[in-house]
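Usage

Read records sequentially. Each one opens with the input sequence:
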Amino acid sequence: MKTEGISKMTMGMMIAVAVFIDAVQAGVNLMDAIPYVGLILSSVISDGISIFAFLTFFLWFHLAGLKFNSKIAASTVGAFFIELIPVLNALPAWTLSVTTTLLFFQVKEVADKVAPEATKIIRKIAESDSKAA
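and closes with the structure output:
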């Protein structure tokens, strides 16, 4: 089963890369134990990793044909800002962001197949809500 151009293999790779990035950032946090220099060094390295991860996943989703709507943007930008905060960047924010994004599109695809009429109605309601706002 494909999700708008994303195979299960690609989904697995995206999640694996996100887990790796989160593990590296958690490891970089250990440099905080070094007085003064460690805090500065870990912040700079962690921020660089966060910027790299944001650009990587943004490009990866874009190349796969997934449009960045408000849900994806909130998830990705939220993960980016969580990873910029020194203590919170040990949390697996990138893994959660990528996983929720992939699950959202997986559910959307299943809903389109199972109940296409209900999906059309939900889209019309969402469009009317966005126009009213």
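Summary fields computed downstream for this record:
- The mean pLDDT is 82.
- The longest helix spans residues 37-63.
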